[in-house]
Design brief:
The chain is an alpha+beta fold. It contains eight helices and 15 strands. The protein folds into two domains: about 240 residues, no CATH class; about 25 residues. Strands 4, 5, 6, 7, 8, 9, 10, 11, 12, 13, 14 and 15 form a twelve-stranded mixed β-sheet that branches. Strands 1-2-3 form a three-stranded antiparallel β-sheet, with no helix packed on it.
C-alpha cells in the first residue's frame, strides 16, 4: 500500500508566509493559515483518485498479519482512561477533555507506531454548518428540557476522523431446508359449526444462492456506540481521497481498535442477513425453514479508511450525552435527555381528554 508522509510531519502544515499552523478547510483541497489567511493547496504526488478506491487482497492480509506489514510512522496518541478512545492528533491540538466522552484526560500522550489508512473522506461541512444541522435536530426533539440548547451548545463540537473497514466479497451458499405450503381444511367443531383451519405441508428443499457484496462498512472504533455510527450512513465513498496527513491538520483521528480479522467477522454477520433472505426466496413457498447452510467467500478485498464526523459531548444533570454529525451530509444522531415535567403534563392532558370523551359517551352526547 502506498503510504503518505506521517501525521507528525509538521513542516508541511506550517504556513510558508508567517510560520503559524495550517488547518484543512472543509469542502476544499486546501490548507488555510489560522493567523494570516494564507491558502496552500494539498497536492498529493504520485496518487490518483483510483488509489483511494483500490481494493486490497484480504486473504494475503490475513495470512501475513496486516498490522505488522503496514508502513508505519510515529504519531502523537492520547488514550482516554474513561472510555478507552485512542486518538491521534497534532501536538498543538492536545486538550484536557476527551472528544468522545468529555472526561478529563489526565494521562500523558505518547509517541507510537500507527498504521496509516489507505484513504480519507475529507470534511465537507464547516463547524458552522454542522452546528446548524445540530440546532435543527434539537428543535425537533419531543419532550426535551427547555434549557437543553444551553447545555448542548455547538461550541462543544470537535472534528474527528473515525476509522472504518470496507469489505468486498463474492459468496456462494449451499443450503438444506424445507418449503412450507399453506392449505385450508374444513371440518365441524363440537358445536356443529363449520371451521376453516390453515395448515402447512412441508417439502424438503436444497440448493445454492450466490451474491456479490460491495463496500460492507464496519467500524474500527470502540469509542462510540455502533448504532449511532450506522445511522450516519450512507457515506459518499465515491469521494474518497488518497490518504494525505494534511487532510487531518486541525482535526483529530481515532486510532483503529478493531483488527482486520475481527472486522471481516463483523462483515460476515452483515452479509449473513442478506444471504438468509436469498435462501428463503430461493426455497419459496409460504414459509421456510433453513436447517443447514454453508457459505464460501471468494474475491475478498478490503480498504482501511477514515470518515469525518463532528462530535458534541456535554453533561446534563448527572449524565453525559453524545451527538454525532456526519461531516459530509449533516445527518445527526445521538443521545438526548427527556423532561419529566413535560411528559407528566402530556400524560395529564391525555387523561383529561380520555375522561371527557368517556363522560360524553356514557351520557349519550
Amino acid at each position: 500500500m502506498d503510504v503518505s508522509a506521517p501525521l507528525s510531519d509538521m513542516e508541511s502544515v506550517t504556513c510558508p508566509n508567517c510560520g503559524a499552523s495550517l488547518s484543512y478547510k472543509p469542502g476544499t483541497t486546501s490548507l488555510v493559515c489560522e493567523h494570516c489567511g494564507t491558502t496552500v493547496a494539498i497536492k498529493t504526488e504520485n496518487a490518483t483518485p483510483a488509489d483511494a478506491r483500490k481494493e486490497n487482497d484480504l486473504a494475503t492480509a490475513l495470512a501475513s498479519g496486516w498490522q505488522a506489514n503496514q508502513l508505519q510512522a510515529q504519531s502523537f496518541v492520547v488514550k482516554c482512561p474513561a472510555c478507552g478512545a485512542q486518538t491521534s492528533l497534532d501536538k498543538k491540538m492536545f486538550s484536557d477533555a476527551c472528544a468522545f466522552c468529555g472526561s478529563p484526560i489526565t494521562v500523558q500522550p505518547d509517541e507510537r507506531a500507527v498504521a496509516h489508512p489507505q484513504a480519507v473522506l475529507p470534511f465537507k461541512l464547516e463547524k458552522s454548518a454542522a452546528s446548524a444541522s445540530f440546532a435543527k435536530w434539537l428543535r425537533k426533539l419531543w419532550f426535551a428540557p427547555n434549557n437543553l440548547a444551553k447545555f448542548a451548545s455547538a461550541d462543544h463540537f470537535n472534528g474527528v476522523y473515525l476509522p472504518f473497514w470496507t469489505f468486498d466479497a463474492g459468496t456462494k451458499t449451499d443450503y438444506r431446508g424445507e418449503r412450507g405450503v399453506h392449505y385450508v381444511e374444513t371440518h365441524k367443531n363440537s358445536k356443529g359449526e363449520t371451521v376453516r383451519e390453515t395448515k402447512t405441508r412441508w417439502y424438503p428443499a436444497s440448493g445454492e444462492v450466490k451474491r456479490d457484496f460491495n463496500d460492507i462498512l464496519i467500524t474500527a472504533s470502540q469509542a462510540l456506540p455502533e448504532k449511532y455510527l450506522n445511522r450516519l450512513e450512507p457515506w459518499d465513498l465515491g469521494s474518497l481521497a488518497h490518504y494525505d496527513f494534511r487532510y487531518l491538520s486541525g482535526f483529530m483521528a481515532e486510532v483503529s481498535q478493531v483488527d482486520i480479522a475481527s472486522g471481516f467477522e463483523g462483515a460476515k454477520q452483515v452479509m449473513a442477513v442478506t444471504i438468509d433472505q436469498d435462501i428463503r426466496g430461493d426455497i419459496g413457498g409460504d414459509v421456510q425453514r433453513i436447517d443447514e447452510q454453508h457459505t464460501n467467500y471468494f474475491r475478498t478485498t478490503y480498504k482501511y479508511i477514515l470518515l469525518p464526523a463532528w462530535l458534541s459531548v456535554y453533561r446534563y444533570g448527572s449524565k453525559i450525552y453524545r451527538f454525532v454529525v456526519n461531516a459530509r451530509t449533516g445527518e445527526v444522531h445521538g443521545e438526548r435527555p427527556y423532561s419529566a415535567i413535560k411528559i407528566a403534563l402530556a400524560v395529564l392532558v391525555a387523561l383529561i381528554i380520555i375522561g371527557i370523551v368517556t363522560y360524553l359517551v356514557l351520557n349519550g352526547q
